[in-house]
Amino acid sequence: MRYVLQNRINEWSYASGKVYRDPFNDMELALIFTEPDGEEKVVPAFWSGDNTWKVRYVPAKIGRHHFCTVCSDASNSDLHNQKGELEVTPYEGNNSLLKHGPLKINENKHYLERIDGTPFFWLADT
Fold first, then answer.
1. pLDDT tens digits, one per residue of 72-108
2. What is the pLDDT of residue 124?
3. What's the whole-model pTM score?
4. For the residues of 62-90, what is the DSSP string, one character each?
5. Rounded to an integer, what distance in angstroms lies between the CA atom of residue 95 and that of residue 90?
């Protein structure tokens, strides 16, 4: 079980005992996250050199998230079908980027808002 904060980037790695000649092209690794409400998200992992793959996940929902790895080389038991859980607790700081979460398109598709529904006003200068 990993304990993480809501809307924060979390990164961890997986090491393969199996060596690939061209790891970047020879296989793919992804994690399937099941959020507390049952929604699934697929997050690709990336090759990080040698026999290491990393994943970065930003949980927006509070509660217990389950995950399972899916490797294109199903015979690699170090990377395929590895399971785990994240316990996500609320962010309690003052950083509005972390407090309200990432951006999304509003339901009416006319403007942006934060994942928690907070309006987002984009102001730029040229």
1. 999 999 999 999 999 999 988 888 778 888 888 999 9
2. 78
3. 0.82
4. -EEEEEEEEESSTT-TTTSS-EEEEEEE-
5. 13
The one-letter amino acid at 16: S
Cβ atoms 120, 114 nearer than 8 A: yes
Q: Where are the domains of the chain?
A: 2-92, 94-126
CATH number listed for the domain at residues 2-92: 2.60.40.10
Q: What is the mean pLDDT of residues 3-12?
A: 93
In this structure, the number of other CB atoms found within 10 A of the CB of residue 7 comes to 22
Structure tokens at 73: 């080389």
The residues near 11 (Cβ < 8 Å, ≥ 6 apart) are: 54, 55, 56, 57
The angle subtended at Cα 28 by Cα 7 and Cα 44, nearest 5°, is: 10
